[in-house]
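Reopening: structure tokens for the adenosine-5'-diphosphate complex, inputs below.
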Amino acid sequence: MTITATTEYEPLTESTAVSLAKNLQFFKEGALLHCREIGDGNLNLVFHIRDENNTGIIIKQALPYAKVVGESWPLTLHRATIEGNYLKNAATLVPNLVPKVYYTNETLAITIMEDLSHLEIVRNGFLDGKDFPLLSKHIGEYLAKTLFYTSDFGLNQQEKKKLQQAFANPELCKITEDLVFTDPFFDSETNEYEPELLGSVEGIWNDAELKLEVAKLKNTFLTSGEALLHGDLHTGSIFANDIDTKVIDPEFAFFGPIGFDIGQFFANILIQAITREGSQRSNVTSHLYQVWEEFTVTFSDLWKTESVEYFTQTPGYLDYILTKVFTDSIGFAGCELIRRTIGLAHVADLDKIKPHERRISVKQQALFLGQTLIKNATNIRNIQDVELLLEK
Ligand code: ADP
Ligand code: MG
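Re-run output (same inputs, fresh job):
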């Protein structure tokens, strides 16, 4: 069975993935290739192909449905094009912080990219007690540059509108709208939680003040096309070691509110922080300070030196934007905390906690922190305020 760049769409197997890599001449003639499907994600196939010298490539292929649910949940193949285009755009803005893209093919819905196997998925590293000292400095820079240069502050108005069209991503946005902003706040079939959490969960469903704030956040997500977002920037979408950081998996990319990417990163750091104590905890909460610091410093620099918007010279405007972005991020972080605890897509940080009683108690803390962040977003002025809430 061979497969070439002109073949119609079909899901690859380990052997057709190898034949494709050979056809595209990624390896020397006669190289002894080894291929394994390593996808641990919910939506796609990921093939790792390497030769005798361990030189490798990654072929990521979208499936026409969501793997986590099965063929009953069809999902557009176009997300592979979105992912490839996002990575190519990011390569011009933050070349050191994304995998190199070697090849894309819209029909096959594949992205062939740099093999990052020497790094580790941050969520897994955190679970092993690692801290990734440069993670937040890199992610702060990543957020500032990708968001500034795709916003109306850093990108020509005509180009931004065109890019916005190219990154229309209705089906993947719908997943976020449902799973992050809607289902967890109602008694929806997609929710999943331990029976012991029912009291806390009903508390969320009956909290009118909370729901009004979530409605506002969802409205911002639906309507605010501030910049090109990654759209799924949790710790499972970041590879790192002590020196390097690479962001992967931008298939949810679209033009949305700047605070969303930041809030998802905040929330996934907070989730890990809740599971730790003492100095172990402060090693991860330090990422909250550092990412916000790096983001604001870099974003402010770009604002002063690279702006294409007249009003960026107006005193007070930068502060207004940074405050708004921070408040949005806090609210979005709260939604992410709640949905990762009781929604459809859970995280290992919480689900792997043993014993059972401790897991329930940590999840209750996650829910409570999520609710508090959402309801008090406008009063939370800085990361110190967030850390105080975490310690409560
Ligand atoms: P999904 O969109 O299905 O979640 P991901 O892009 O997150 O897929 O990839 C799933 C897994 O495949 C990652 O957690 C990682 O283990 C592996 N993977 C993805 N991209 C690479 C890469 N460039 N290098 C090495 N491993 C990768
Ligand atoms: Mg994904």
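The radius of gyration is 21 Å. Residues 38-44, 46, 58, 60, 99, 113-117, 121, 248-249, 251 surround adenosine-5'-diphosphate (ligand 1) (CB under 6 Å). Marking as resolved unless the reporter disagrees.
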